[in-house]
TrEMBL record:
GO terms for biological process: protein transport. Its main location: membrane. The keyword Membrane applies. It comes from Rubripirellula tenax. It comes from the Bacteria. Belongs to the ExbD/TolR family. This is Biopolymer transport protein ExbD. It is found in: Cell membrane. One of its GO terms (molecular function) is transmembrane transporter activity. InterPro entries: ExbD (IPR003400).
Length: 140
């Protein structure tokens, strides 16, 4: 006795019309939204000018502080006091509140106290990114 297997005709009669409608609606939606984006870019706007306009933050610049063997502090090659150094760092932090870096270059023969004083001024003025440089290689 042979068993008959009937094949379903459901797959052959599936209507693709609703799927095509959805694809066309999505296509129209993306075309319309991309046109609005292009319109915003085409606007010819002349920005107002100001004579005292400055950027919100200046370019991050390293402040290099040198301490010689006698403990004298140099800033930009000129001798400076701790008060002068503090004033400069306060101005630098005001223009770069999060990006201000300080490099402390101390002579190997200097006492540790001047270096600690410079670090203390960095902490008081809000400079969190400071480092003490060293020379590469074995010590002599």
């Amino acid at each position: 006795m042979a068993v008959e297997i009937k094949r379903s005709n459901i797959a052959s009669t599936l209507s693709l019309t609703p799927l095509i409608d959805v694809v066309f609606l999505l296509l129209i939606f993306f075309l319309v939204t991309s046109e609005f984006e292009d319109e915003e870019r085409r606007l010819n706007i002349v920005l107002p000018s100001a004579t005292s306009a400055v950027p919100m933050t200046g370019k991050p610049r390293e402040v290099i502080i040198d301490v010689d063997a006698e403990g004298v502090i140099y800033l930009g090659g000129e001798v400076t006091s701790l008060e002068g150094l503090q004033g400069l760092l306060e101005r630098a932090v005001a223009s770069n509140p999060t990006n201000q870096t300080v490099v402390i270059r101390a002579d190997r023969e200097t006492a540790f106290q001047p270096v600690v004083s410079v670090m203390d001024i960095c902490n008081r003025t809000g400079v969190t990114d400071y480092s003490v440089t060293t020379q590469e290689g074995p010590g002599a």
